[in-house]
Design brief:
- The protein is an alpha/beta fold.
- The protein folds into 3 domains: 2-71; 96-251; 262-510, Spore Coat Polysaccharide Biosynthesis Protein SpsA, Chain A, CATH 3.90.550.
- It is built from 17 helices and 23 strands.
- It has helices at residues 2-26, 36-52, 61-68, 80-84, 105-119, 144-152, 235-251, 274-287, 308-319, 350-353, 365-369, 427-443, 460-469, 471-478, 490-501, 522-532, 550-564; strands spanning 96-99, 124-126, 135-140, 160-165, 168-170, 183-188, 190-191, 198-201, 203-213, 218-221, 231-232, 262-267, 326-330, 345-349, 381-386, 389-391, 407-409, 411-415, 449-451, 456-459, 505-507, 512-516, 537-541.
- The strands form 6 sheets. Strands 2, 3, 4, 5, 6, 9, 10 and 11 form an 8-stranded mixed β-sheet that branches. A 5-stranded mixed β-sheet has the order 14-13-12-15-20. Strands 1-8-7 form a 3-stranded mixed β-sheet, with no helix packed on it.
- β9 and β10 (218-221) form a beta hairpin.
Length: 575
């Protein structure tokens, strides 16, 4: 209903816009046709309002137009909440389930089902999911009906069980039918009823094995991708051999496996910290007189905090539970909502990583980027994220690294070529121009493609090698208090090209959405992202946002993020 309402609002507005022009022209008619256009337009508007669900029809076209626009145009940033109210429904069944990482509930359910299967002599094995946040239960198609009957007899649980097959949600497993096909048992841990009628919770995949015949024999196989075993002479044979297979896999690395220990690194600043803000202003007063000062380097958008980090960590908690440690690099600041005692959270001060303390304080994100590999205890394999980058779907280690340590990177269609950049350029582009000239001069290759604003996978040892080769430039960037013409972007631009040149990184593809807050249609764009939930990553960037729209846009952003990530993460303090 929510999305149909949004589409209907768009249709309604188009009809109103057409009606306004027609009403204007109809007032010029004379003779027997006088007033006919006005009457026809009123009929169109009345019909549109009735189809939208209006309880009454105003008596004049003017009142109709006013009623039509009561919810406000979709380009109004503060309108998200008012549109959300149109989605209420009497049914409690969700329209869609969002699978999130298991916190132990599904593991317990899996143990209960395994016990029941043993009691009822139903052969099974557990494993094979390609995402670490999901359990997979494998059964034979010949035992499908017995298994369904077993599930129906499970005792009631704290969270209601739902059943999903081919995207359709069932509250009663019997209604899925008797055809032995894969399905998911999901826990409805949380449900949004006023937004998109989505349920959130972990899932237990049920893989139903069936027969498959080639040119000479019939075998049994898993119909969905199985990372453990997918083909056997019989299902009983696969179950019998599984302990031996798992032992072999434990002691021998597989090409398709990924057992890397991967850390995340965030950089974060609280622009509402008065001590930090005063220090920044004092240094900015001096920096503004420098000959290479860049006007955008001092803009407040470079330091704006909308609690994006809280929601980015929620996205990690929901969709990337395999992360080992999360390092948050700050100027001795701590978000008030953050549980710093969580075993995965590691707070890092600039003082802990800067090679020379006289370069501090710093307000230069590029300079901080040159020092991140100095974090004590950081894994060889890590991912660098800005706090405005979010995981939009379940993610695996293989999305970022291959099992042999080769990293993936995602190139934008945009290029930076020194010879065609005319006049002043933004500091991030100048940083990439500097890197390109360094590569040309010292390594005889010339990259040009910039990266998408996504999580950046990197290897610590490769960054140390880069630092040794370009020590003068790394130091020159690190000592700049603000972004400047001497900057580099070692992880978000240099690393992918350098590592590719060394055979340690490869270009890859992904689904990604860049949400620019300056766009007049930003609310509509955010609603589409929320509706589709199809992007692996998305970024919310506020460069160029006009001051007069800032308050309304901030409210819309918070509403959007709260709708996309409604569950508090385990990294937040209990409220």
């Amino acid at each position: 209903m929510f999305y149909r309402s949004l589409l209907r609002i768009g249709e309604l507005r188009r009809e109103v816009a057409n009606s306004e022009s027609c009403l204007a022209s109809s007032s010029m008619l004379t003779g027997p046709n006088k007033g006919q256009g006005h009457s026809n337009m009123k009929k169109i508007l009345y019909r549109s309002l009735r189809s939208f669900g209006a309880k009454y029809v105003p008596s004049s076209a003017k009142a109709t137009i006013k009623r039509t626009f009561k919810v406000g145009p979709l380009t109004d940033a503060g309108n998200l909440k008012s549109v959300r109210r149109t989605s209420q429904k009497n049914s409690t069944k969700p329209n869609r389930h969002i699978t999130i990482a298991d916190k132990g509930e599904v593991s317990q359910l899996c143990e209960i089902i395994a016990h029941e299967c043993k009691t009822n002599q139903i052969p099974y094995f557990i494993g094979g999911s390609d995402w670490g946040g999901i359990c997979r239960f494998n059964i034979s198609g010949s035992d499908y009906r017995r298994f369904v009957y077993l599930i129906k007899g499970l005792p009631a649980r704290k969270h209601k069980l739902l059943f999903v097959r081919n995207g359709k949600i069932y509250e009663d497993i019997s209604r899925m039918g008797n055809l032995p096909q894969d399905f998911d048992i999901v826990l409805n841990c949380f449900q949004q009823r006023n937004v998109t009628k989505e349920s959130f919770g972990p899932s237990l995949e049920v893989s139903v094995w069936g027969t498959s015949r080639n040119y000479k024999e019939t075998r049994v196989t898993s119909h969905s991708d199985n990372a453990l075993v997918s083909l056997s002479h019989s299902f009983h044979h696969a179950v019998a051999q599984l302990p031996k297979i798992q032992s072999i896999y434990k002691n021998n690395q597989r090409t398709e496996s990924n057992d890397l220990e991967i850390d995340f690194v965030y950089t974060w600043v609280n622009d509402q910290d008065h001590v930090w803000a005063q220090e920044k202003d004092e240094w900015a007063a001096a920096y503004g007189k420098a000959s290479d000062a860049n006007s955008r380097a001092l803009h407040k958008e470079r330091f704006k905090n909308r609690d994006e980090l809280k929601y980015s960590l929620r996205s990690v908690d929901m969709f990337a539970p395999w992360v080992r440690n999360i390092y948050i690099v700050t100027a001795n600041q701590i978000p008030p909502w953050l549980n710093v005692n969580h075993p995965k959270i590691k707070m890092i001060s600039h003082r802990d990583i800067y090679r020379k303390q006289e370069w501090l304080p710093t307000f230069n994100s590029s300079g901080i980027e040159t020092q991140l590999h100095h974090i004590d205890g950081l894994s060889e394999y890590f991912v660098y994220l800005n706090d405005d980058v979010f995981f939009g779907r379940p993610s695996t280690k293989a999305d970022l690294f291959f099992g042999n340590g080769v990293s993936r990177f995602h190139m934008s269609r945009s290029t930076t070529i020194p010879e065609i950049q005319n006049g002043a350029v933004e500091e991030y582009m100048q940083a990439d121009i500097n890197a390109i000239n360094l590569f040309r001069e010292r390594m005889q290759f010339s990259p040009s493609r910039i990266m998408e604003h996504v999580p950046h996978a990197a290897r610590r040892s490769v960054l140390y090698e880069m630092e040794r080769l370009f020590q003068d430039w790394f130091d020159g960037c690190a000592e700049q208090k603000f972004r400047s013409k001497k900057d580099l972007r070692p992880i978000s631009f240099m690393y992918p090209h350098f590592a590719f040149h060394k055979g340690l990184a490869v270009p890859s593809s992904t689904t990604f959405r860049y949400l620019s807050l300056w766009r007049p249609s930003i609310v509509s764009l955010m609603l589409n992202v929320l509706k589709d939930r199809k992007y692996q990553y998305f970024c919310i960037n506020d460069v160029g946002l006009p001051e007069e729209r800032e308050e309304a846009v901030n409210e819309a952003v918070k509403d959007f993020l709260e709708s996309y990530f409604p569950l508090p993460s385990e990294f937040e303090l209990m409220q």
